Amino acid sequence: MTTRNVGVIGLGAMGVGIAQTLRRNGFNVHVCDVRPGVAEAFAREGGVAGANPAALAAACDTLVSVVVNAAQTEAVLFGEGGAAAAMRPGSTFIMCSTVDPNWSIALEAKLEAAGIHYIDAPISGGAAKAAAGQMTMMTSARPAAYAAAGAVLDGMAGKVYRLGDKAGAGSKVKIINQLLAGVHIAAAAEAMALGLREGVDAAAIYEVITHSAGNSWMFENRMAHVLAGDFTPLSAVDIFVKDLGLVLDTARASKFPLPLAATAHQMFMQASTAGFAKEDDSAVIKIFPGITLPAKKDAP
């Protein structure tokens, strides 16, 4: 594979996996992260650490932004040391955050005016799939953007869905995915909480449900955290406060009812305000009264 310079901005759980996958697939990966030492640690295994997004933009044809939300993406592009002013015409910005689709559409127009390609490209699959190159990307972009950076998309994900010829559709499909993800986590927590309240052993609940029709990927994944008593955040409660909020905002604009999403959003809001905002999103189970959760297992 011909080596190409690709910048990855944000080395969180998903970003570091993306950077590792691109490096493994023959790209020359430049990275930056706001946390001291994180980019340098990645670079020690191969790659280049940059001081800020502008430094990556000066060296790379394609930038991949893997930050939390629209505000952070704005800072990546237009804040101090931001990428936009340093990006050359014809280069490409790939936006992987979960955002309001209308915001993504507006960002495409803003970058196009500067001669920069834009790909609306939210991601799903979790840290393990990102590291294995097996995550899913829900993308939409102008044909010229795909032509410029399609190889980068294919080099970082297992499935790249091309959902439209302009920004917006990728973010809309991601919001639909987040509706289901949030509702499934909330429902999984409610089911486990009921079982605990009724005195059923947590491990027995988990074993039976994961081999029965009521199972979901989120039950199997998140209730394993509950069973281990480990709420170290892989995806935090506040992520679903944000994402389900985006779901409801999108539906509200067209007066479309989403009763399950609204209830799940309230559950995550309750968990957040109860002090669990930064814990793993499975901590939404802590809002249920009168249950005793499994204790954290000691490390071997």
UniProtKB/TrEMBL annotation:
It comes from the Bacteria. Its EC number is 1.1.1.411. Keywords: Carbohydrate metabolism, NAD, NADP, Oxidoreductase. Residues 168-287 form the 3-hydroxyisobutyrate dehydrogenase-like NAD-binding domain. The active site is at K174. The keyword Protein biosynthesis does not apply. GO terms for molecular function: NAD binding; NADP binding; oxidoreductase activity, acting on the CH-OH group of donors, NAD or NADP as acceptor. The keyword Oxidoreductase applies. Gene3D superfamilies: N-(1-d-carboxylethyl)-l-norvaline Dehydrogenase, domain 2, NAD(P)-binding Rossmann-like Domain. Residues 5-164 form the 6-phosphogluconate dehydrogenase NADP-binding domain. It is an enzyme of class 1 (oxidoreductase). It catalyses: L-threonate + NAD(+) = 2-dehydro-L-erythronate + NADH + H(+). Belongs to the HIBADH-related family. L-threonate dehydrogenase subfamily. Catalyzes oxidation of L-threonate to 2-oxo-tetronate. Can use either NAD(+) or NADP(+) as cosubstrate, with a preference for NAD(+). This is L-threonate dehydrogenase. It comes from Rubrivivax gelatinosus (strain NBRC 100245 / IL144).
